[in-house]
Amino acid sequence: GDAARLAEAALVRAERAGTPAVVCEALEVTGRVARQSDLDAAEAAFARSLAVATAHGLELWRLRALHELGTLDQLRTESVERLCQARELAVEVGALALVATLDLQIAAGLIKQFRADEGLVAARRSADASRRLRLATLPMALVHQAGAYAQRGDVPRMETCLAEASAIAPDDLDVQGSVHGLRYAFLR
Q1: What mean pLDDT do residues 135-160 have?
Q2: Which of 26, 1, 21, 28 is nearest to 11 (CA)?
């Protein structure tokens, strides 16, 4: 509640002051709050942020809005098209950590669509960048690699990835739940 109220107040002030970066930031907060209960309202906020960022040449804010819109697409339809567009832009602007995160989301979407080969490529890119940049995305990138290997019927590689993910993040409940869930689903 506080975040929504503060974002609305910031939006009004930023529009009056003519500060488009602050407008984009306020709209991002508004969209993220709305995403919890109203995907249409979230999309409207992120789309407006994208329009403002584009109109004012704010590439980082354009990237962030496109990422958020791609995340909504993935929630609604598993589409990864806008996430791929955001990834291209992240590469252009040098947002390397965000590239790894986008690759992780793209991998998840592709694997859910049973596009294992493409999902594996995205998951590997995320894992490689995560290792190189020492990012916290590495364990889940390995889990997604394992999911792609499972879809391909490659149990030894699936198990190798799951073991590494588990070893890297032994106390992370999301990682451990994903590891055990994938093993259970595949071995049933």
Answers
A1: 96
A2: 26
